[in-house]
Amino acid sequence: MNFMEMLNSILFLPLLSAVLIILFLRTSKWGGAMVSVLSAVVCAIMALVVILSNTTSIKSSFVLFELGDFSMNIGLLFDSIGANMLFVVCVVGFLIHVFSVGYMDDDNSKGRFFAGLSFFMFSMSGIVLASNLFMMFVFWELVGFSSYALIAHYADTPDAREASKKAFIVNRVGDFGFLLGIIFCWSVFGTTDFVELAQIIKESPDKASTLMGLLIMCGFIGKSAQFPLQVWLSDAMAGPTPVSALIHAATMVAAGIFMMVRLASIGFLTNDVLAVVMVLGSLMAFMAGLWALGQNDIKKILAYSTLAHLGMMGAGIGLGYGFAMFHLTTHAFFKATLFLVAGSIIHACHHEQNVFKMGGLFKRMPITSITALVATLSIVAIPYFSGYYSKESILTSAFAMASDRGEFFNYVVLALLVGGAFLTPIYMGRLFFNVFLGKPNSERAEHAKESGLFMSIPLIVLGILSIAGGWSYVCECRWFEGKMSCLIPTSACVFVGDFLKSHMKMLHEIPSVHTFEYLTLALTFIGIAIAYVVYGRCGGRDTLEESAPVVYKVLNKHGWFDDIYNWYVAKVQQRIAVLLSVVVDLSLIELLSVRGFGVVCAIVGQGFKRLHDCSANSQVKWFVAGIVFVFALVIFS
């Protein structure tokens, strides 16, 4: 089997798995799970084989159909960027499949769940391997459908139903702009193929348009839940926890980052577009960190943490797209670990999700607790953990840009990113201290037990990746200088590794950069200390809610964005729709065009009816008049 056949298998094997489960194994207790996990492990193995082959680039495409000057090409593209993302999708996806076997043990709809997971793997792999924007958009929409179906897995609960609809509708808003951008791209360049676009832009850089980039950026804003379309992600936590880990933390929400990185790497995004992405990302990095402090639900805390780190990746795109891809990878490892930790806790505590009703789980769930500690140290950016290197690269780049340009705009971006980084240890410390330390604050926490092997093994593997997953990328840079062993295949790290090698050495030539790094590290430890002082001995009480209820309410409601949007839809958009319905639909279209045409025809018919009285004399008159009219036409023509 050659590499292209392997890539086709990686793409279509999960689709085959989903179809088999839906048609034949939907009601089977374990058949669907076995088929889905088997397809996931085969895809992970084949992905590793392709990545380890050190193949620099593979592309295949063929014409699907032609319509005049327009031709639709579909095909696969595997390069260094795709290798990085394919490793994340297939390996993390496989581990979450294994975890799901234990988590969904008592679920009566396992078949439907695993069919949805397999279909998502097919859709996400399609985004990674798509050779052009049109093909990417097709899989982009399939990923949206997968998310909708999996969020609504618990269809008997109103929250899940509403969350799935909300996620689907909000994403369609962003996707509309994405589609307009793709059409604009084809009208300007005559192609949407990534390789062809790279060549055209290299020869004619002026063809890249800010408007085109902003339209395509709308897809990123929707899929990666960035301002102002961030409102769907926290509600999406109503789905099963493995779904939150795979789709809403590690892969799907990162698809927007991946798409923007791919376009930025070929020069498609202008400096103005990169500046907008950087501002929106840094704003979300700070705001979402604040909102996380006002949540009690363990999954919602992690959801807002995801929003914050997606914002940091967005800022990374503007600062240097390699930094964004680096943080995407490490974030997938430690955030998937944290969500699976949450799943293990929820499973052990009989679906309790309030962190203030937990406590004392370190003794009762040692494997879950240790992996949670590892992932927490990684996300708060403690040195030698993977999250430290990726987050530090973004912050250092922001500092270097602000120092070099000296513009107020760049200092605002830097301040927001540093503020978001400072908030991370506070809200993660709040979560960790309340869940794992102290005494149990509920009977459910009192009787919690460690999860089984199907749930523990993926936690351990992801925990290891949370520690060492970033080493492969920095082993050629300042920190390790080639002395560290690497867990991730080298060819999966080429894109980010080369970027870091060329940029980080340049950044560290700035004298004040080292001082800035020590300052951010000091802020991390200060944040941990604040979290311990405030929440380490709170005994199941939310001290923020007690001491500052107004602030807590603002943070808990995440700035009342939902209320604002509900008001806009009900009071503004609905009234505009009613006005358009009355003026345009009923008056112009129905009365004038549809019914008006019928009324005119009826009036004309009635007029001719009165001229015709069915008598012989009348018929002769009309006959003679007709003959005269015809002769007149012939003569005068």
Describe this entry's structure for a reader.
By secondary structure, the chain is mostly helical. It folds into three domains: 1-198 and 228-238, no CATH class; 323-556, no CATH class; 565-636. It has helices at 3-24, 31-52, 80-103, 110-129, 133-151, 158-189, 194-203, 210-223, 231-235, 241-250, 252-265, 271-292, 298-319, 321-348, 361-364, 366-379, 386-405, 408-436, 443-446, 453-468, 471-474, 494-507, 513-535, 543-547, 549-556, 561-611, 616-636, and strands at 58-67, 70-78. Strands 1-2 form a two-stranded antiparallel ribbon. A hairpin with a 2-residue loop joins β1 (58-67) and β2 (70-78). The chain starts with a helix and ends with a helix.
Topology:
Layout: H1 3-24, H2 31-52, E1 58-67, E2 70-78, H3 80-103, H4 110-129, H5 133-151, H6 158-189, H7 194-203, H8 210-223, H9 231-235, H10 241-250, H11 252-265, H12 271-292, H13 298-319, H14 321-348, H15 361-364, H16 366-379, H17 386-405, H18 408-436, H19 443-446, H20 453-468, H21 471-474, H22 494-507, H23 513-535, H24 543-547, H25 549-556, H26 561-611, H27 616-636
Antiparallel strand pairs: 1-2
Helix pairs in contact: 1-2, 1-4, 2-3, 2-4, 3-4, 3-10, 3-14, 3-20, 4-5, 5-6, 6-8, 8-11, 8-12, 10-14, 11-13, 11-14, 12-13, 12-18, 13-14, 13-17, 13-18, 14-16, 14-17, 14-20, 14-22, 16-18, 16-20, 17-18, 17-23, 18-23
Unreliable runs:
478-485
Which percent bin holds the helix content?
A: over 70%
Number of domains: 3
Query: How confident is the prediction overall: mean pLDDT?
Result: 87
As an assembly, this protein is single chain
Tell me the Rg in angstroms: 29 Å
